[in-house]
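OP here, attaching both records as promised.
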Amino acid sequence: MHKLSFVSLWLLLGLLAGCVTINVYFPAAAAEQAADRIIRDVYGVPPRREEAPAGEDAVPPPDSRYESESPLWVALLEALVKPAAAAADINVQSPAIDRLRTLMKVRHRQLLPFYEQGAVGIAADGELRIRDMNAVSRLPDRVRLKQLVEQENLNRKELYAEIARVNGHPEWQDEIRATFARRWIDNAPSGWWYQDSSGNWKQK
């Protein structure tokens, strides 16, 4: 009977560990914060002050009176949950990422007049699109705009792939792209153009 209970306990712990791992498989919140840092850096906007989660400082320290009374299964479950919770983060540091960020920051300064003219906007998938070429009067500037948009979109794809690679999860690339797509638009200043999910152009 005791042997059966022990096996059942380990099966239950295994199922619980599996559920925890799935729930934090893609760290969506951490990815969004990382995207905001990168995008605001590219845009030349000061980073937001990162605050601790509400109530974090108010969490009381564990009461030692109950530590010795915790059942074995509680201790085992905590050991399984803590590594999974710690994995709910995303790494955006690598030489390749730093290089791409630098390229995009420099290019953004060249794109800025085209954003302000309404010639270029942000598509729903996070890529740049030429919205109104008529807003650019000079032919050399039109050629330059096409080059800038092509280079920017290429670097954005490279950035998403590199973030996924650095984190050891190439299958995250689509989710990273979707996260950045939302944040490129949300962090854009007033007056810029963007596409909604239906493909309609709107001005912030």
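Record two, same layout:
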Amino acid sequence: MSGELSDNQGRGDATWSLPAIHPEGRKYGLAAIGVSLVFLLVLDWEIIGWPLLLLSAGVFAFFRDPERVVPQDDRLILSPADGLVTQIEQVPPPPELQGPGNLGDAGLGTEPATRISIFMSVFDVHINRSPVSGTVQRVVYIPGRFMNADLDKASEENERQHVLVKRPDGTNIGFTQIAGLIARRIVPFIKPGDMVAAGQRVGLIRFGSRVDVYLPRGTGSSVLLGQRVIAGETVLGELGQRILIEGVSQ
């Protein structure tokens, strides 16, 4: 199915397949299997071996990397992460994304912008994707704490990585990968100067975390607080569109 074009008129093919495991996670899954086999076959400690074997399956599941059908429309800003929308607020962009950068971009400025925060639990896919097509202008890593990623101050105090992508029309889109209570490493797949496509894999965060997306001014959220989103597929906003959308939990 990879690379196949589909549309909303029924063209294309939809088949289920077992998600691939990202190479970053294979070593952890194989190591967990090796330890569990030692307890089962060598030490004969089944009370420890079987739970470890089950944990091995969980490790592989955490690093799953399913294919996504990415909408092909330059006006759309896509979700960079799977998870739950926990905050939609007007806040100033982080200082690392505000001013001019080394590659000549203007940054996001200091005026408040719509920030959409997406919380990823350990059960979500943790591969992050670019919300738009363009050129990577900045990848800024900030060491920090490992507080609950669902807290508002995690954006300023936790270990995090800021990414700025400049669209072909000059519009800058910023997003931040934030480590959480369990997460201990943010793994980038990109660097400044790289060209990325909307929905392209750009990194991962290990074991529970959060991603903040800063929409351009004049663009409102197309998702609701409490909504679940899918990386590379769910539309967070459409450039220049700001309308009220209401939802009811049921």
